[in-house]
């Protein structure tokens, strides 16, 4: 029995299809007609009482089923009308007699009006509304997705809430797309009803005159009642379903059910009710107008308007008193508030990334006021995830009274990492290596890269570009600085939870690889350390499959994470090459062979691993030469790259990273074979 109930809809659809072929007796047809009208009425009532369209998301499917049901009943009733001399049950006879009332011409005209109202007004209107709603819903999807990302980035919603909202947007788009197609079914159903009515009447007249030998007046009386009754029995449910279709596609801007919305919004305008009542009272004075009905309805509108206006004033007064009382209750004493130890714990939370700004920078951040910072952060997070394979945590944005009005600061795990100042009404002009002319402005330093720059007025922007300056708007300056800081510290932001999420993502595609690697071959903490090593030097971790496979190959030989990291870098050599190669050529600084020998001989082991014990004079010479060679890259606007052998790469990087964090160190094994290496400097002893 339970299985039968679960498949009731499927069985019902099969029965509907069978109606097209299996004849029914008049009693069964009466029952099915009543069911059809009842179901259509229930569907209409549901659409009037839902708050939003997705509460009745099965409507497009129901629309198809009910339409097919009506057509099946039409075919069955047509079979009875034509074979039983117009006798197709009491329901059809009752509806036909009700409309005709003994006059075939008047009854036919009334029936045609009902059909045209259903076809031209309701079906056509519902089809147009559904088409526009579907197009606008699909067009608005990218903006809604960006709004969700912005709320997520600013901390207004959680990741779970963001997933729920994205799912709802997708379901809404699918629903309106389905409704756009479903309204075509309603239109086709209306056309088919007209065709079946014409066939019933025409064929009935022919059968009555030719086969049954009835007189023309008898044929007209019998078949007109049956035909119009059959048409009405079909058109009334179709009219209800068409109205329900129009209702459900117009629920986009509603906050409650139709009954609630109509009552709330009509009664929210008492002045309109009173003005309408006064106009009706004036019309009652005009000679020839129905005085009593106009005065009666005018009095109703005036009384209702006065009553609603008085209630609104009382509600506003009560609300003001309630708000004052609530405000007093919600202002606890600070000492009493922190007596509860649970209220202290929120003070211990540390955000992964925060950005604080002075009040003058609020227009750049405020989304409601046209600020674009949140949108730019969303774009940066998406681009960084695509490039590096790591999703940056949400960035908390907040204003701070402790900062200067034009100042902002960037925090990582609660500590200020970088700061800068922005002049909102100016442009930042970055000076080129060779100036073609000078532009008036306020001298400053570009915060992300430390390049000498000027804040210039908007009217000087074009002149600065002509002179070779790179002109940047204030928002881009702030976003660039934020992105650089986050990129440099991404290895700190890679949490254990994010690592587990990345592993789960791979597990969905290659579960066997994850089962083999974790936790038997490598622990989650060691894997997090390896990924952090790669991110620290700017190596993307997007190709997790290659990374895990390399770990499996290396783990059988060594457990040293530094060695495994170097093996992973070799496996990702195409990715590393792409980052530093330009036009098939890579410009690098090389290490002298003698220097590499000295570095190898100075390696010493401790309980914490291998370290370099270079003498201070050698270290000083190396650092001075690195500084001189790095300037050559600044002149050609490329990121500095030092090329070493595979053995010394990681140790040389650690030697210089605290002095030159923006310098990349790669080995010969990490360069693809099809790249031409050009040395523009050499570090020697």
From TrEMBL:
It is a multi-pass membrane protein. GO terms for cellular component: plasma membrane. It is found in: Cell membrane. One of its GO terms (biological process) is protein secretion. It holds the Pfam family FHIPEP. The keyword Disulfide bond does not apply. Keywords: Bacterial flagellum biogenesis, Bacterial flagellum protein export, Cell membrane, Cell projection, Cilium, Flagellum, Membrane, Protein transport, Transmembrane, Transmembrane helix, Transport. Gene3D superfamilies: FHIPEP family, domain 1 (3.40.30.60), FHIPEP family, domain 3 (1.10.8.540), FHIPEP family, domain 4 (3.40.50.12790). The keyword Membrane applies. The chain crosses the membrane at residues 7-25, 31-50, 62-82, 102-122, 190-212, 232-254, 266-286. PROSITE patterns: FHIPEP. Required for formation of the rod structure of the flagellar apparatus. Together with FliI and FliH, may constitute the export apparatus of flagellin. Belongs to the FHIPEP (flagella/HR/invasion proteins export pore) family. This is Flagellar biosynthesis protein FlhA. It comes from Anaerotignum neopropionicum. The lineage of its organism: Bacteria, Bacillati, Bacillota, Clostridia, Lachnospirales.
């Amino acid at each position: 029995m339970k299985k039968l109930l679960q498949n009731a809809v499927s069985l019902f659809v099969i029965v509907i299809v069978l109606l097209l072929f299996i004849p029914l007796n008049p009693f069964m047809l009466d029952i099915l007609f009543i069911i059809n009208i009842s179901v259509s009425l229930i569907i209409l009532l549901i659409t009037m009482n839902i708050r939003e369209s997705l509460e009745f998301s099965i409507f497009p499917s129901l629309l198809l089923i009910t339409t097919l049901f009506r057509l099946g009943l039409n075919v069955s009733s047509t079979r009875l009308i034509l074979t039983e001399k117009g006798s197709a049950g009491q329901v059809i006879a009752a509806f036909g007699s009700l409309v005709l009332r003994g006059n075939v011409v008047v009854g036919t005209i009334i029936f045609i009006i009902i059909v045209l109202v259903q076809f031209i007004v309701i079906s056509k209107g519902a089809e147009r509304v559904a088409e526009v709603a579907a197009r606008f819903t699909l067009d608005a999807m990218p903006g809604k997705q960006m709004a969700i990302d912005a709320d997520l980035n600013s901390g207004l919603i959680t990741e779970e809430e963001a997933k729920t909202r994205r799912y709802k947007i997708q379901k809404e788009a699918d629903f309106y797309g389905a409704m756009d197609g479903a309204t075509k079914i309603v239109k086709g159903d209306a056309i088919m009803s007209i065709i079946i009515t014409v066939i019933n009447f025409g064929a009935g007249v022919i059968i009555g005159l030719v086969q049954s030998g009835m007189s023309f007046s008898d044929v007209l009386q019998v078949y007109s009642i049956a035909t119009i009754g059959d048409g009405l029995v079909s058109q009334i449910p179709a009219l209800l379903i068409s109205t329900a279709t129009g209702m459900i596609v117009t629920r986009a801007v509603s906050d409650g059910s139709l009954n609630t919305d109509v009552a709330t919004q009509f009664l929210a305008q008492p002045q309109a009710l009173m003005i309408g009542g006064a106009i009706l009272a004036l019309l009652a004075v005009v000679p020839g107008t129905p005085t009593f009905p106009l005065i009666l309805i005018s009095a109703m509108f005036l009384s209702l308007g006065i009553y609603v206006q008085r209630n609104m004033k009382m509600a506003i007064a009560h609300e003001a008193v309630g708000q004052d009382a609530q405000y007093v209750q919600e202002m606890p004493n600070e000492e009493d508030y922190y007596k509860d130890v649970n209220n202290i714990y929120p003070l211990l939370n540390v955000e992964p990334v925060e950005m604080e700004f002075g009040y003058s920078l609020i227009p750049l951040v405020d989304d409601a006021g046209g600020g674009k910072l949140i949108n730019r952060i969303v774009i940066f997070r998406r681009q960084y995830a695509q490039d590096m394979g790591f999703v940056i945590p949400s960035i908390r944005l907040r204003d701070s009274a402790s900062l200067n009005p034009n100042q902002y600061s960037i925090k990582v795990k609660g500590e200020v990492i970088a700061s800068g100042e922005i002049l909102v009404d100016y442009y930042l002009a970055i000076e080129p290596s060779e100036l073609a002319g000078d532009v008036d402005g306020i001298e400053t330093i570009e915060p992300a890269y430390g390049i000498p720059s000027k804040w210039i007025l908007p009217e000087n922007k074009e002149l600065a570009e002509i002179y070779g300056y790179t002109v940047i708007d204030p928002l881009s300056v702030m976003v660039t600085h934020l992105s650089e800081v986050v990129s440099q510290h991404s290895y700190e932001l890679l949490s254990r939870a994010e690592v587990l999420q990345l592993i789960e993502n791979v597990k969905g595609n290659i579960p066997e690889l994850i089962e083999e690697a974790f936790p038997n071959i490598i622990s989650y903490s060691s894997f997090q350390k390896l990924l952090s090593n790669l991110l620290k030097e700017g190596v993307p971790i997007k190709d997790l499959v290659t990374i895990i496979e390399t770990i499996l190959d290396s783990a059988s030989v060594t457990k040293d994470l530094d060695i495994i990291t170097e093996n992973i870098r070799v496996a990702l050599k195409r990715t590393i090459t792409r980052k530093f190669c330009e036009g098939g050529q890579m410009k690098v600084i090389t290490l002298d062979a003698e220097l590499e020998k000295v570095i190898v001989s100075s390696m010493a082991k401790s309980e914490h691993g291998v370290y370099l014990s270079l003498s201070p004079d050698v270290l000083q010479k190396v650092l001075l030469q690195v500084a001189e060679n790095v300037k050559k890259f600044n002149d050609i606007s490329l990121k500095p790259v030092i090329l070493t052998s595979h053995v010394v790469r990681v140790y040389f990087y650690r030697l210089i990273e605290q002095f030159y964090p923006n310098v990349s160190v790669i080995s010969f094994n990490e360069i693809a074979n099809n790249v031409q290496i050009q040395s523009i400097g050499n570090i020697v002893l």
